[in-house]
Inverse folding.
């Protein structure tokens, strides 16, 4: 019995020695973050660096060579301008629609006076669960060219002429913005709702005592306290707008007439894969990265998101 | 302590399970690339379900006639874009490509850029070259070497709606030149109120065949841009005139493959359409109401001695440089695409005009099938009559980009938006492509 005990007592420090590295408080954190670090290095940093390298190359099997800034010079063409213009205008439209509208809807849905608000909350969110491609097919049929297509039939009822929706720049932009708004409205409502629920009720109560009306409460309490959420939604919306691809793809499969539906990401796809010019595709990608980065830095500076942390 | 060691144990088990998963995976795939049941395995990618069925049929035939060299053909069908992108990446990175692959003509040149990633097929093509339409091999070649074998000639014809022509008292046999066509068009429009022809504004299949028919093209044989030459400007101006004079309309939906278009034509929307022979299946499957009303004729000519067709579209079947058993793949490909039997099967199964003209007069091609029922049994008589008039376009490394610009810029701006003159639009794009 005693012998056995001795043995086990001795075994413990031995075990400790062997596992010392793993159990040390210095190493453990690194082990825990290693899955993220590894996936970041392999799936993010490595491709990013090779994209930068490829943007200075002509990439062909067996004959890849450096060609200086030739790929960047090629960017000065009307298609790139069209893509940049479309993407920028699309982003601005989604910002105009997808921030104020969900904000107002969230405030309404947050009010206890609205009947069936749980139903509406889920109803607004359901579109976000559907795949853009599947919805796009339905939208493509709704906005068909013939007069019997649902959207044109509706226009006719209102006494307006039928439209060739996917053939003109203005209607094309409308289709993309409409699809995006329909799909992402619910998600943004969700962000704002969670923000609203963290505002203490006491603030509203004391404002009421001071005689503040509905609009005053909205502009002096709700909006300022929601500012962090608004900045967050603004940031992801800018990213979302510039990385847009599916909304254009479902209507034109990357072949929009006169570049009316060409987006920056669509242009990467077109040059990189369809025309097998990976170097040029990489260059477009790098420029897109710089654009998004600069816009968001400016946006965060202006809205003062940096100051809080400092 | 006990808790910690338990945690460690779980962690180690998780890692080892993960590693085991990896190792068993690799051993599996290692095994599957080896022979099974004494048959050699060949993998094949395609973007058309019907193509896959055709190759499986031919593999069965092969195994019946070659019991000593049985193959196990594994076909995978991907959507069009997916397949071409997957292939591009696997050839670029050197792993994961199939042995045999179907590549659509407008993407084919992507795989010949730099060092061609496909296997040269001259030794199986040369023996049958004189029995087939030569230009169908040239479109898949680089520096005199052939890399792909097509399913069909893609001879462009004109499909007339006889019902509408009869109403206007027009006899399709009397339409010999495009000038006759225009005159007949005026009659049809005034008698029926329907347009004579539809024009693709969002696809190349009206403009391109009309250009190639005249011996012109977007590139000349040496690969120089000739998009803005006189013939091309004249042809586009002609199409614009047809539209302006309301003899033609822009195809509903933009091209001849749009849902809107099938519905429009099925209701007798226009009196004719210019498309290659492979368009027949769209009539039989999507425009059933026109059965028995469509007549197939050679295209009208531009001049008295002009040609009456052009070979458009196509799918080149190729062998990749990652194929381990190139000899077997070549033998099978020759059997499945170049043999006489194969060419007859291509018509029977797929309804395409096969590339070997020596089978066109074969009685097997007159046997009833859904195409002869729909159109009549004279289809190959029409084809035979224009055998020497079928030129194919010149395909260069930049063809994908060129076609994209012609369709999305030139045709859209001239025919749809009408914001540019034919000459101006063609010159602009030609200059962009010359850079």
């Amino acid at each position: 019995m005693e012998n056995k005990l001795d043995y086990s007592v001795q075994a413990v420090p031995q075990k400790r020695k062997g596992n010392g590295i793993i159990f040390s408080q210095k190493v453990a954190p690194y082990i825990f973050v290693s899955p993220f670090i590894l996936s970041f290095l392999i799936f993010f940093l490595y491709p990013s660096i090779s994209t930068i390298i490829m943007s200075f190359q002509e990439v062909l099997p067996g004959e890849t060579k450096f060609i200086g800034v030739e790929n960047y010079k090629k960017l000065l063409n009307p298609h790139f301008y069209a893509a940049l213009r479309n993407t920028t205008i699309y982003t601005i439209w989604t910002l105009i629609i997808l921030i104020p509208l969900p904000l107002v809807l969230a405030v309404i849905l947050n009010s206890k006076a609205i009947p069936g608000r749980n139903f509406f909350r889920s109803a607004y969110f359901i579109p976000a669960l559907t795949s853009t491609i599947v919805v796009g097919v339905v939208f493509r049929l709704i906005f068909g060219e013939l007069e019997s297509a649902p959207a044109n039939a509706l226009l006719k009822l209102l006494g307006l002429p039928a439209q060739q929706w996917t053939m003109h720049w203005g209607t094309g932009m409308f289709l993309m913005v409409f699809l995006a708004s329909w799909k992402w409205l619910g998600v943004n409502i969700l962000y704002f709702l969670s923000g609203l629920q963290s505002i203490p009720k006491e603030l509203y109560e004391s404002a009421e005592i001071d005689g503040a009306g509905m609009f005053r409460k909205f502009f002096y309490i709700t909006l300022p306290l929601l500012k962090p959420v608004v900045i967050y939604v603004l940031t992801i919306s800018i990213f979302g707008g510039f990385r847009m691809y599916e909304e254009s793809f479902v209507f034109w499969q990357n072949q929009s007439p006169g570049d009316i539906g060409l987006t920056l990401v669509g242009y990467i796809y077109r040059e990189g894969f369809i025309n097998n010019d990976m170097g040029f595709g990489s260059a477009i990608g790098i420029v897109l990265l710089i654009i998004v980065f600069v816009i968001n830095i400016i946006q965060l500076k202006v809205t003062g998101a940096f100051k809080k942390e400092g | 302590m006990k808790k910690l060691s338990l945690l460690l144990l779980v962690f180690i088990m998780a890692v080892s399970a993960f590693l085991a998963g990896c190792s068993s995976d690799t051993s599996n795939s290692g095994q599957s690339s080896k022979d099974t049941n004494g048959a050699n395995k060949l993998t094949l990618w395609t973007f058309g379900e019907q193509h896959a069925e055709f190759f499986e049929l031919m593999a069965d035939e092969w195994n019946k006639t070659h019991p000593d060299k049985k193959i196990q053909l594994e076909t995978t069908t991907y959507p069009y874009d997916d397949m071409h992108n997957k292939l591009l990446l696997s050839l670029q990175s050197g792993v994961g490509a199939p042995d045999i692959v179907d590549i659509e003509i407008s993407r084919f040149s992507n795989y010949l850029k730099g060092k061609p990633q496909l296997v040269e097929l001259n030794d199986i093509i040369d023996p049958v070259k004189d029995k087939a339409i030569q230009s169908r091999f040239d479109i898949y070649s680089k520096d005199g070497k052939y890399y792909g074998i097509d399913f069909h000639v893609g001879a462009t014809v004109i499909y007339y709606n006889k019902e509408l022509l009869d109403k206007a008292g027009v006899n399709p046999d009397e339409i010999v030149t495009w000038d006759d066509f225009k005159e007949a068009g005026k009659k049809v429009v005034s008698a029926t109120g329907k347009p004579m022809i539809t024009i693709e504004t969002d696809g190349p299949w009206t403009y391109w065949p009309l250009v190639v028919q005249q011996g012109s093209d977007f590139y000349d044989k040496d690969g120089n841009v000739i998009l803005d030459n006189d013939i091309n400007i004249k042809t586009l101006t002609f199409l614009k005139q047809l539209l302006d004079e309301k003899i033609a309309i822009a195809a509903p939906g933009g091209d001849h493959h749009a849902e809107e278009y099938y519905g429009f034509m099925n209701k007798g929307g226009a009196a004719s359409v210019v498309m290659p022979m492979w368009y027949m299946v769209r009539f039989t499957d999507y425009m059933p109401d026109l059965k028995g009303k469509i007549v197939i004729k050679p295209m009208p000519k531009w001049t008295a001695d002009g040609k009456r067709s052009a070979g458009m579209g196509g799918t080149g079947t190729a062998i990749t440089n990652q194929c381990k058993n190139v000899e077997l793949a070549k033998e099978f490909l020759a059997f499945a695409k170049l043999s006489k039997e194969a060419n007859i099967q291509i018509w029977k199964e797929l309804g395409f005009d096969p590339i070997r003209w020596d089978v066109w007069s074969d009685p097997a091609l007159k046997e009833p099938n859904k195409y002869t029922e729909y159109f009549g049994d004279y289809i190959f008589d029409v084809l035979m009559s224009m055998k020497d008039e079928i030129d194919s376009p010149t395909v260069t490394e930049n063809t994908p980009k060129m076609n994209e610009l012609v369709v999305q810029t030139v045709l859209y701006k001239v025919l749809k938006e009408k914001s540019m003159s034919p000459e101006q639009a063609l010159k602009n794009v030609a200059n962009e492509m010359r850079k």
User: Anything to note?
Assistant: Residues 15-36 of chain B have pLDDT under 50 and may be disordered. Chain B has two domains: 40-153+313-374, 156-310+397-434. Chain B has 18 helices and 14 strands. The first helix of chain B runs from residue 2 to 32.
